[in-house]
Amino acid sequence: MAPLYVARPLLPSLDELNVLLAEVWATKWVTNEGPLHNRLESALAERLGVPVARLFSSGTAALQCAMLALDLKPGGEVITTPLTFPATAHAITACGLKPVFADIDPDTLTIDPRAVERAITRHTVAVIGVHVYGTICDDPGLQALCSAHGLWLLYDAAHAFAAEKAGISSAAMGDLSVFSMHATKLYNTIEGGLITTRDPAMSERLQLARNFGIASEEEVKSVGINGKMSELHAAVGLLNLKTFEQERDTRRRLRGQYDAIISQFPGLIKQAHQRDVLQSEQYYMLRVEPDTFGASRDDIYARLKERNIFSRRYFWPICTDYDSYRGAPVASLQAEPVVERIKTTLLCLPFHSGVEPKHVQIFGEVLEEMAAACLATV
Amino acid sequence: MAPLYVARPLLPSLDELNVLLAEVWATKWVTNEGPLHNRLESALAERLGVPVARLFSSGTAALQCAMLALDLKPGGEVITTPLTFPATAHAITACGLKPVFADIDPDTLTIDPRAVERAITRHTVAVIGVHVYGTICDDPGLQALCSAHGLWLLYDAAHAFAAEKAGISSAAMGDLSVFSMHATKLYNTIEGGLITTRDPAMSERLQLARNFGIASEEEVKSVGINGKMSELHAAVGLLNLKTFEQERDTRRRLRGQYDAIISQFPGLIKQAHQRDVLQSEQYYMLRVEPDTFGASRDDIYARLKERNIFSRRYFWPICTDYDSYRGAPVASLQAEPVVERIKTTLLCLPFHSGVEPKHVQIFGEVLEEMAAACLATV
Lengths: 378, 378
Description:
The structure is a homodimer of 378-residue chains.
Chain A: E1 4-5, H1 14-27, H2 35-48, E2 52-56, H3 59-69, E3 77-80, H4 86-94, E4 98-102, H5 113-119, E5 124-130, H6 139-149, E6 152-156, E7 164-165, E8 168-169, E9 176-180, E10 193-197, H7 202-210, E11 214-216, E12 219-220, H8 231-240, H9 244-262, E13 268-270, E14 277-278, E15 284-288, H10 290-293, H11 297-306, E16 309-310, E17 330-331, H12 338-342, E18 346-349, H13 357-377
Helix pairs in contact in A: 1-8, 2-8, 3-4, 3-7
């Protein structure tokens, strides 16, 4: 059996792509806010229900541009979760700012506003919530806290494309929402990023931040980097916009199949099901309580790997395990932060339209074998 | 006549591109150091005569990754020239470092090591020289200074792809050389960047810096961002590598034609011709001395524009004219920095294989008309 990975990029047909590339080649306008790029920005703003949608070369470049657009001064502290992809913390550090970590809620695994409150100092300038695995943060809680303390509220919405909570688009939460459109994402542009906001005044600042601050041939207005998306990547984005909902439907069905299997095993816990949430279906994450299940997350990972199924211990290591942040405190309501206990229990399964019934069956078999072996030992 | 711009991207045929894209689509490995990416890195290292060539998503991302790889701490000062594209200074600022400006040599217009020396403080951590318009910096002078003061020496070689001085590749100068492969460059990958170095020990640090510091599934070793080049852009790069020398030949002939015209006009000064230099032929830059020629750089720019030829007042504004750095001192040997006098005299002409004999003729006519009008006025 061919190896199966956690993610597989949704790609348009090369024939369709060629029609768009022929347009690009005809004008030779290949980057720098070209026609396809601009069409994609409009289409995304409409699809996500926000007035402003700005494209970037990557989700990380978008995070950096968000901090530049907000003019966050070097040395300022930005509070975020340690349970995230390295990009979140590293983008903060790479901007000359300091990431400060706050604990997660034990049910949603998203940043806990009460922990954030404990991490606030006079140097704090912003909070970045992360909608991990598509689970939506406590936006009302974070917004109330940030408003009270005069802090910017950003979301790393890399996992929450086209998600909604109580009818509110994930793109319309906080001051800025930052998406990744990397190949591993439900909706992808190969490499790409997006910032959305309800605030039209942010639009120009974001545009300046991604294009060196250049306002005109005669004026450089602010600090900016190269955060531009090329026409090649925008072409992929325009085509994938037509098919990602179909991919999401497939994943939704797959979630049901995985859920049915793991609910048979004590000690395996499904991802939080949030009321009123339209899930992005970015990841299928499960938690393994080894004392109850009888084997650890790492055991399941290893056994699946033997069958050529590559799950992912995601997120692990967490930020405070990296060389760069080791020993950094995690503000928490507990003596031992929740995230420390949880981090070795998380496993993401292959979750895309390349997952076939035989793969799901193998997953079920592996769990049964492991559970049976544990019973035999007892 | 169709408008003519300073740059026009060198592009492969879509048929050729499709052969490579079919390879990519077959494996679905579309980014994250894919096969085409790795082939391109090897090809560039060989072509440029260096042991290490690392690809990036853009020249600016490459600059940021260079500073991350060198672990330059926020607050440190990096000395560079004010006569450069915004990316040079902004990449420094966006990393939380401070750009400090030093004056240029009046002949080569590259940063003057004697001016750099005056700008050094105890906070200085690095110097970034810029090979403007393909003119190579005083590398021995800068290297001696940086060695004496224990500073990193970087080059912004965005204009100096495949250039050589005295047989030494521009890719082998300083500690790190940073190239842009943006669409406007002689050799382009649509959007792209490259770092080259003679030091094999830098290779892993650069790789980590562009991929979130991720060393393995289990280890995040250093601070990094997303500086990855996709397979789509790498495909364009592989194909353009076969044709850029032909484009450079065309430009070399065009330089001869422009040179012949402007040498007829007192007050028009050619770009410094450097002995022993293989020019990148990135730009054709001329200087306009208005008192002698009888009209200014801006006058020529405006007159060419009327004829649908779009030259570029490049670099103008200079960094110390931007809102972000206005009033920043320029360390200089002169009371008034050379760069202040020079900045309003620089004009870059359309310089690529799309420039036809009729365009060159119009350029000559415009200059003749302007010179005649000035004589009539005298």
